[in-house]
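Open question from group meeting: does this chain pack into something compact, or does most of it stay loose? Before anyone orders reagents, we agreed to write out a predicted structure and look at it together. Recording both the input and the output here so the notebook holds the full record.
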Amino acid sequence: MKWRFLFLICFAAANLFSSICFGQKASMQIHIYDNRTSDTPFYYDRISIYKNGKIFNDSNARYSSNETFRNLDTGIYFIKYRSFFNRDETKKIVINNYKKYQVDLCLNYIDTVNQVFNPLILQLKNHDSYQIIFRSQGCDHHTQDTLLITKDDTAYIALFRSKSKKLSELEIKMIIQFEHELKHIDLGCNCRTADYYTVEYYNTKIYILDKCCHWKGYNYIKRELFNIDR
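Structure tokens returned:
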């Protein structure tokens, strides 16, 4: 047992010596993703790494799905990035070994634990319905569609163009996530395409403008629910 303990000590010391001598420090591979799809790459604003309250390294805005930061010493790091909704998010990473660390950053992340949100789909009573009118306008296109969601007894039905379907539990969660993300759309972007959302429920109308070109929430919903890309 004693010899085994001494062997482990020597092995750890050898690894540390090798890392110091040959400059083999830790690295951090960052995977950038959207939890709604496996499509890549994605556009992100900037990724910054902080240590001891000071910026250690950063990468400029670009289209990518992976970023790698090398030559990292042990310690506590904070990764700061901006989501699709123009919100600054932070992730804590503890590096205690000279090895490669894998970090996942979700671009459409929303803190659903500390926020109160009551989606319309869960407010529907029997035979109630609400609709989302979508209009997209750009340099070379102009489209408009309507998604109607109604409650029939205990079932939720989605109607789009000439198609209708009963929503599964997973699809209901998808609608809830869509509504939550729609609430957080930022107005500060300046894309050439403007997506207009009008949510109508009885006499209530909510107007939302998305000029960021990255979220594409309505396109995602109609593709997942009805397998329609256009």
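Observations to bring back to the group:
The domain at 25-106 is CATH 2.60.40.10 (Immunoglobulin-like).
The longest strand covers residues 142-152.
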